Amino acid sequence: MKETLKKSYDRFADSLEKLSREENFAVLRALDGSLPIQIQPEQAMVCENTDSVLYKVMKILVTIQNKFLTELLFIAKSGKCPSLGFLKKNVTDMAAIKAVLLQNLKEDEIIVCELESVENDIVKYAQNSLIFGFGSQAAYNFVKIEMELANMLSLGKAYVVMNQTFPFVSYANEMFVACASVLREFKTIVPQKQIGTSVTEGILKKMDNNRDFINQMMRQIEILLSLAKKTGGNPDQTLRNYTRAWLKTLPGGFAEENLSFEGEPLCLCHLVGLYEFLESLQADAVIMSMNQSFRAPLSSVVEKELKDFADMNHIELASIQVAFKRFVMRHLVNFDKEKMDLDTPLIQWMAEPSLWPKGVQENGELDINKEGGKPKTIRTEFPQMLNLEHTFHALTCINKMIEDRTKLRAKWLQAPTSVSTANNPAKSKQGRQRTKAKMGKT
After folding, report:
1. What is the residue-wise DSSP string for 286-314?
2. DSSP-derived 3-state class of residue 21
3. What SS3 state is found at 264?
4. pTM here?
5. What 3-state class would DSSP assign to 386?
6. What is the mean pLDDT of the segment spanning 163-176?
7. Of the candidates 353, 402, 413, 417, which has an alpha carbon nearest to the alpha carbon of residue 183?
């Protein structure tokens, strides 16, 4: 079995070497235009989950290194190999080696063994020159060879750890489960701009022709956000070019045509604005189908506390509504009952600045979602008795307040503009002055 695998690997290595030659790679490019101009010896890759082929390959390589080092530790502990004595510790019958997370692993901590170079290095310590013994005898310093091998294969090497901290790329709503401030962090990596009206109009038009368009595009933008957060990039790079560069690492079914609209081309600097716009289009449908766990009624005390917060802190009701909708979309779509306590105060999530729309003022001066820290007004004034289980009815209460104020404003605008002078002394006085002036002229 071992020999068969060795032969298969040798054939693969030989084929790859031949394909990598410039003249052969040029032929491949003629057949497949998506290939780069020249073969890249190294390329960044991303892992979605433990089912990723790349992850499985790394897992096997890590297992090989760890198994080898474990066997060396047993040998060192036994004391039968003095060359491995540096692995033994002061404690009796104990040998140890450092453990390192895979994502923090350095090149010199990986065991690399190229048989040809190892053989050449080892025979330096052999007295096998032809002048000795007329070529019929050779003398090897096995102690020195053993020490060199021990240093080469174990000195500075690390036991590799792969656990839940491995940096998978989170897609869809998973990214907010992992990190609530993901959009705020993304803005520090790739500066953002607002999307143009031509884009929003184009999205609405495509949505009318394809009911599933918003879901498809939302999925793609979430993938690009997660990927670009790790890779970075030029804010002015178009999404089409960025997608093409990373197409081979993206999940299947990634539709590039969804990123094309009339007018200004979409770039990396538009990702957050695009995400928030798509999020707002989906929010209403998601809220109406919200799980019953989040529909606990508000007590009169809690309802009053919420209304006081909206009335006394000079924050527009529409902004509070947006913050609630974003919270629902980012945290409650894929909720896990076992991990979310329904009695947890909503302030734990609502104090996240990226939930609040840009332009909301704190104390009339500072943007509520300005860089650094959580907004003081939300952190200190948001209703403390409002829990996760109240989410649906809290949003319903805000919607009702907006509806009532809209009706009141419409009623006020429709009211007669003429006012009786009997009820307005100032106007009555002005009228008497105009009458006297006319009488003086006559």
Report:
1. HHHT--GGG-PPPPHHHHHHHHHHHHHS-
2. coil
3. coil
4. 0.55
5. coil
6. 61
7. 353
CA angle 91, 94, 96 (to 5 degrees): 110
Q: How far apart are CA 411 and CA 169, in angstroms?
A: 52
Q: How far is CA 220 from CA 173, 188, 232, 314, 344, in A?
A: 12, 21, 17, 37, 32
Taking the C-alpha atoms of 334, 339, 342 and 346 in order, what is their torsion angle to the nearest 10 degrees?
-70
H helices, E strands: number in the chain: 17, 6
Q: What is the rounded average pLDDT of the residues 121-148? A: 65
Tell me the two tokens of residue 293. Answer: 């766990």
Q: What is the pLDDT of residue 396?
A: 92
373: left (phi over 0), alpha (psi -120 to 50) or beta: left
Alpha-helical (H) ranges within 102-212 are 115-122, 142-154, 174-178, 182-189, 197-209
User: How far is the C-alpha of 33 from the C-alpha of 218, rounded, in Å?
Assistant: 29
Confidence band, pLDDT 50/70/90 cuts, at residue 436? very low
Residue 326 in tokens: 């974003």
